[in-house]
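Pasting as-is:
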Amino acid sequence: MVGELITQLRLVNKSGKLGMNEKYKSENFREFLERLRAKKELIDIKQPVDIRHIATLVDQAETALLFHNVNGYEIPVISGILRSRNRAIMSMGCENYSQIEHRLAHGIENPISPVHIKSASNKQVIQTNDEVDLYKLPIPMSSIYDGGPMITAGVVIAKDQEFGFNSGMYRFMVKEKNLTGIDIVTPNNMRLFAQRAYESGQSCPISISIGTHPFEIMGSGFRSPLGTDEMSIAGGIRGAAVELTSCETIDMPCIADAEIVLEAEILPTGWTHPEGRFGEFTRLMGGLHWNPIVKINAVTMRKDSMYYALHMPWENTWLAAPTRYTAIRKSVKNAGVELKDINVTLGGCGFWHAIISIKKQAGEGKNALLAALIAQDIKHVVVVDEDIDVHNPADVEWAIATRVQGDRDIIVIPRARAKPLDPSLPITPPGVVPTGAKVGVDATIGEGIPSERYERIAYAYADKVKIEDYLDGKSDPILAEDEDKVLTEKLAKKVFDLIKKEPKYYQEIAEVFGEYEFKVVARALGQLHTEEKLWQDDRGRACLKDSSHAAKPPKSTN
């Protein structure tokens, strides 16, 4: 598929329309933010804001947001910089959306090897050993169901003795002040590198560069063949070499222009620790994963660094108008299925494609399909659950993508009566009724599927915090900061007692103890993890390690 894409785009690129203004070759992360600000695509929030509200506010905003004053933290948070079609176009220095693909193809075909420089701005502050404290970084919560604060925008560089360098973007769930997980449960080059290190009994050193230009984000996000250096592809996309610099505590490079760099190593623990859950691009919560542990050996940063929190997801679309409801409604009612809504789409020429939602009981997805397919000349029907908006094309497509198995949920009825005006049918003699295929797609949630697989991403405090209020000047109360060890121990005992009764999501714990600074709550949970008391249940909620709720690893975790 990648080869075909490159071949197709190469034809376009031969015209010379690569779609990027040459002046952006040397643009760094901060200059890109200034360009967003100049185009009113970035708004500065300068009043105090509780970190627990950031993800929800970004979700509500039409622009990227820079939070200058995050309660309890010295570092500002930037988020949402790629959360719209227009900002994605701007990030690549392009004029329209299709040109972004041209830039990627150009980068793949014309890689530029990175260059190494001796000094970098992210070396202005260097913290090592006991100075490392991830709780001082303003890492926001995102979804209600997340297992903990997630580092989401780190460009990870790793090296294998045989295959060379690999770059990618992975999520790191904060577990302790210097420990995280790394989400590499799916097969990819990073997992292979970690697996090979694990099998040899060694750690896998990695650098994690946070706050980099989208050129480097795009390059690292492209899944290249083994042995390909994605930073060379990023250079090809940029049109100039990516500048790297050496880490302080590990023999690895990092991106010189990054705001913050974590120098780390994936410990040879194997895939044995619970990680997640995570909000995915599907707009659903992913499941609990089993992953290795990452030790952070050093944090280097600019003196005036910003923390970039990548916000998921960012897709939206339009609505369509309904037609020809009567026949379908009658047919589905006669089948004894409770119908919620109908949309016969304009894309289906106004009578061939129907999307219906039902209040489903077991087996009724197929019954509704058969009933709707016999209504007049309907050709293709998609049946969805009542939580899906039948007038929203992306919502329907999302249901098909996340709820359908072709061998189980697609019904083809051959040689059914068809409409003569269907141009896809063979020519038939006059007076002969044409026949064709009717297709039904049951895009309802299958019986026996755990309900937590379909818990949609929902941002914390969405019923309480509104971006309009903050744009009008609202400030969150500044809580008294206290990093005293006794306070942490006291709160850790309260958290212990809370989750002893019932597992709780990280966000629920943070809300219960909302009178404390968020990082105090995080430290308390970190202490419980250090004491080997903290674990997660199968839904990703915090629980006690020795409780009946504690998740158990599968028999084979590697």
